[in-house]
Amino acid sequence: MKGFSQVEGLDFDQVFSPIVRFETVCLLLAMVALGGRVAYGLDVRNAYLYGELDEEIYMEQPEGFREPGKEDFVCRLRHALYRLKQAGLTWWRALKQSMEELGFVSLSSDAGVFIKRDGNSFVITIIYVDDAIFCGPNKAFVLAMKEAFMKKWEVQDLGEVTEFLRMQITCDSSKIHLDQCAYLRTVLECCGMQKAKTAATPLLAGYVPKPLEEPTNPERRSRYQTIIGSLLYLMLGTRPDIAFTVTKLVQYAANPSKEHLNKALYICCYLVGTPNYRLMYDGSSGQGLSACTDSDWASDNITRRSQSGYFVKMAKDLLAGHPERKRQLPSPALRQNIWHSLIVAAK
């Protein structure tokens, strides 16, 4: 059976599958830097094929594998195949069951995080579909849990984690750097902006986007959504410096004007001039959580709504090359409490 021909309510019911949040990944890597923890990566091979189907689904015999004399016979699927609408969900259920059998507990605030405790030792596992990171303070315990996981599934052992969700992870002494430089180059090439003139800021000062009154060109809409979608992925991963601009322009993705498209490309001009910006978590700083917030009053010229913004820092989390004010460092006990807050949340 072809996935696009599936009928809701007959061939599938639910399709949503939880995934870990980018913010959680960055938080845990910052905690790894702060505490000198270890982190190892795994990739599950052919993950969707492990999911067992509850529905009765049939498919034609694949070309080249039809049994002579039974060419009209069909196959009943017991396990999911790629491109089935519920394939991701069935894999998630199988994965969660296997993690529970290993003694892990799913974090209530983020279903993509699993935690196992053994006395004073613990392991935190981050899972995004078929990619996983095992981290914790006790190297032997982390490796033991990783080996136990590898016995349940056919996986590729990636060793110490160097890449996750298209983010490059570089460990330098007590510092961890996260960047999406390779992905950014791909985005700029797809937009045809790799040789564009650079811009000093993500958006021109004083620019106020206005909605387009008439229907937009379908080709323009498609290109605009492609660019904004790629910029959103960069923003969520390692480029919070474009967060305000991207979230502002994404509001017009359904009916963008030529001006909206030009401003989306203007963000690309800014990225051309800042291709090597990255997040840096400095474990030697000992800096715990710090947050800043600000808001204005009715600054939106169209809706007259107020605008607010905030950012949270940890382990001296900043964009490389950006200045930062010095702060008083928290005590070692406070740093340990920050790490164990996830353990408490999993109870």
Question: What does this 3D model show about the protein?
Answer:
There is one protein chain. The protein is of the alpha+beta class and 347 residues long. The protein has three domains: 3-165, Alpha-Beta Plaits (2-Layer Sandwich), CATH 3.30.70; 181-273, no CATH class; 280-328, no CATH class. It is built from eight helices and 15 strands. It has a six-stranded antiparallel β-sheet with strand order 4-5-6-7-1-8, with helices on both faces. A five-stranded antiparallel β-sheet has the order 9-10-11-12-15. Strands 2-3 form a two-stranded antiparallel sheet. α5 (218-237) runs parallel beside α7. It starts with 21 loop residues before the first helix and ends with a helix.
Show the helix and strand layout.
Elements: H1 22-35, E1 38-44, E2 52-60, E3 74-79, H2 87-101, E4 105-107, E5 110-118, E6 121-128, E7 131-136, H3 139-152, E8 155-160, E9 163-164, E10 167-172, E11 175-179, H4 181-191, H5 218-237, H6 243-249, H7 258-273, E12 279-282, E13 290-295, E14 308-313, E15 318-319, H8 332-345
Antiparallel strand pairs: 1-7, 1-8, 2-3, 4-5, 5-6, 6-7, 9-10, 10-11, 11-12, 12-15, 13-14
